[in-house]
Each structure stands twice: as structure tokens, then as C-alpha cells.
Target: Beta-lactamase family protein
Amino acid sequence: MIIKKLITSLVLLPFLASTMGAQTKRYEKKIDSIIQAEFGNRAEPGGVFLITQNGKNLYRKAFGKANLELNVNMVPENVFQVGSMTKQFTAVAILMLEQEGKLNVNDPISKYIKDYPNGDKITIHHLLTHTSGIKDFTKMKSLSSIAQKEMKPQEMVDFFKNEPVDFAPGEKFDYNNSGYVVLGYIIELVSGASYEDFITKNIFDKAGMSHSYYASDRKVIPQRAYGYHKKEQGFVNKTVISFSVPFSSGSLMSTVDDMLKWQQALLKNTLLNPAETQKAFQKYKLNNGEEFTYGYGWHLKDINGIPDREHGGSVFGFKSMGVYIPGEDIYVIGFSNCDCHSPTEVTRNIAKATLSEIKTSSKKP
Model:
């Protein structure tokens, strides 16, 4: 009887292996087609996409060119500017300082920046959740006057702090880059380190993110993907800005592999204890009791009715998007080196397809 079962198992093994292989190929083909609809031209700037479940790679591919002038193909190891995905790191840095007892998210910002207008009414929590009402510097007409200047964090805060507020703190959710610049300045004031040094030492180094950086156009960064815009006459190199302007709201660089390490560090409480981590991933309420779908540095939405955490980024020449589905431990990250190609919907559609594949596979015997 035992021998009969063993023979049956040995006969079935190749069949199961070929079935699983066919499923894997079908899934890969499906993901390829989703990405190629937006990133299909090999001669253009492209992107990199990574899909993981339980920390293991399901899919990892590069598309298009990392450098048009040198005709260099994109590879999965390329380094991209991540834009507003920087906000995740800024939010976690604030929570790390709270964990150390150096600040409290309910502190008014006047505790740290004495002369900030209405600073006794605006809290760190308001900055983290985009509910502060302060003017977003990216919407100010005078931004072009400083875009290429080297700005100190205090100078950046001074640039927008006296602008009329859009609403009272806690009254509305309105996505706001200025709030995250103020947070970066507070990180420097409280920690005594520069934002760049704090993030490098306390996050990148601890999470093993050895290919992540505070952005620079002067440093030699191995495997850097170059950024592009698309104009009527064709592609042009990205507009040059001083990274001291977006600062802690959008000036970090990374790879898809390093972003997985970031996700794993959050999941395993490498950087924060569970109580502090929970603060980043819970929904909050406005003054009128209405709940909104943003935590600290992440949008809290859903895909096909399944809760997710997501955030994108856009900075001259680059776009990024990351989706994490806690219930299935699925992480999808997409980077683009042209602001003409957006990975936002592509990444969400990949997440939907992956959920569907997992659901189908789980039904099979």
C-alpha cells in the first residue's frame, strides 16, 4: 500500500510541477501585458516593477532605457528618484523620535518653531495627515524664484510660513508638501542631525538599504536612471531643481529591491515598535468627526474591497508608486524615469491581477 502511494506521488509530481510552471508563465505574461501597455517601447525611457508575496519575488523586470544618450537599457537594479514616497520615511522618522521620547505627535509646532504663525494650533499630527491648512509651496507662483537655489530647511519654512492659510487646522484633508518640509525641519531641530544623515543612519543603514540616497545631481550614484520629459519634438533631460526645495517631502532616491527592504523593516518592527507602527497605518478624523483615508505618510485605500496602503511620487523626470496589501502580504512597486509614463494605475492593476491569481490558485486542489 505504501509503495502504491509512493508510485502515485512520483507520477503526480511532474504533472503538478508542469501545472505550476504553466500557471507561473500565464501570470508572468499577464503582468507583462499590463506593464507593456504603458511601458512597451524599448527605445523610450522606461521603468522597473517588482511584485513580492511574503517577502519573496513573484516578478521583477525592467523596461525601456535608463539613459537615452548612451543607449543604456534599464535593469532592475537602477536607482530612481522616488518623489513623494519620501513622505513615508519622514513620517517614520518622526515616529522614531516619538518612540525615543523626543517629541509627541500631538505637540504644537510652536514648541519647536517658536515664531511659526498659528503654530500653537497646528500640531505635528496635522502636518503628518495633510490637515494643517498651511499653504502648499508647490502651488505658489514665486516657487520658480527659489527652484534652483540651495535652501536651508529654515529658509524653506520661511518661504511659505507667512502665506495665508487655506483652512483651520483639522478642518479638511488637503495633500500638502509644505507640511512635510516642516516635519523635516523638526527632525533636524530635535535630533541635532541633518535630515539626510538622520534618514541614512536610522533608516537606510538599519534596514540594509545600501542603494538608497538623499538625491543629488552632483554625486556619482552607481546605476542611476536618468530622468526625462516628453516634448513635441521628443524627449529632453529633466528640469534641474535644487533638492533642498522638496527636501523631506520628496528628495529621496532608491531601488525596487531597497523598497522591499523598507517594507520588510516596517513589517518586522525593525524601526518602530508595534504601537508606533500602528499610528502610521490607521485612519484619522477631521474636526467634524469625518474619517479620511490617510495615515502618516500612506494613503489607506482598498483594491477590490481589500484594504491596502499606497503612495505615489512625482518629481521632474520621475514617477513612482507603491502598493502594499497587508492581508496577503503582497507588495507591488513601480518606478518610471519619465514623467510621461505613470506607474500609478499600472501598479494598482498589477496588484489587482496578483490578488486575482492568488484567489484562483487557492481554489485549486
